[in-house]
Amino acid sequence: MGNITFDFTGRTVVVTGAARGIGKALARHFAEAKATVFMVDFDKDELEDAARDVGAVGIAADVSNTDDVERVIGTVIAETGRVDILINNAGILRDKVLWKLTDSDWDQVLAVHAGGTFRFTRACVPHFRNQEYGRVVNVTSYTGLHGNRGQANYATAKAGIIGFTKTAAKELAAFGVTVNAISPNAATRMTASIPDEKIAELTGPISRFADPSEMADAIGFLASEEASYITGVVLPVDGGVSM
Ligand SMILES: NC(=O)c1ccc[n+]([C@@H]2O[C@H](COP(=O)([O-])OP(=O)(O)OC[C@H]3O[C@@H](n4cnc5c(N)ncnc54)[C@H](O)[C@@H]3O)[C@@H](O)[C@H]2O)c1
User: Fold this and answer.
1) How far is the centre of ligand 1, averaged over its atoms, from the C-alpha of 174 (Å)?
2) Global pTM?
3) Nearest protein CA to atom 11 of ligand 1, as residue
4) E-strand spans in the chain?
5) How far, in Å, from the CA of 130 to the mean position of ligand 1?
6) pLDDT (tens digit, 9 = 90+) per residue, 146-173?
């Protein structure tokens, strides 16, 4: 855990939802592996602290807002001249049984997860094409693969990300770009409110949530040059819960 296997010297990485949890662990992983890292989050205060802690550049932005997304990629290109790796990780929950979900619960969750993934990938494509190189790793979920009570909005968004991943993998392969997804299961603020008696059911044979750094190791592999022949996959990094 936490060992650096791949060298990202000279690579520019953008991680969304990076102020905490999986995104912050990822940003740290890439920074330690010598990449230039841009951390994106809409929680400005927490992002500033996280970016200082990791030694990366923090850019406050809302992934569901096209102008924000274009501004982020514009800054990244202005500062480094390239964008090699995009990690679409930002996420929110608005959990309720489907008959209680409001239009806003539905729209916000789709706009952040599916909309943010689309907007950031679209903004990177011209640069990927110029470079003839790119790596995109999207963060989906067990819920997107199998459904979960109370999460119809989130399940739809995360399943949408899987369809998007496979479509983008097909459209971008000709430009040296791979697009993959992981389905994580890590202890973060998002999982903090899960009652103890549900943890065994939600964590499968390994019977614990992962440390977020264990997600970073898997994503680091998919984002590496070495993973050049892997595209369009959804890799469960979930302790076997989705078997
Ligand atoms: N933790 C798990 O076990 C688990 C399981 C399945 C999927 N996921 C997914 O992993 C990703 C990371 O989750 P986490 O557990 O680290 O959660 P987290 O809540 O700790 O982190 C999510 C981050 O995204 C940011 N964010 C939310 N909306 C944003 C927006 N519109 N613009 C910019 N930033 C925004 C938040 O401020 C936060 O910092 C999410 O996509 C989540 O759905 C997590």
Assistant:
1) 30
2) 0.97
3) 89
4) 12-16, 36-41, 57-60, 85-88, 134-139, 177-184, 234-237
5) 30
6) 999 999 999 999 999 999 999 999 999 9
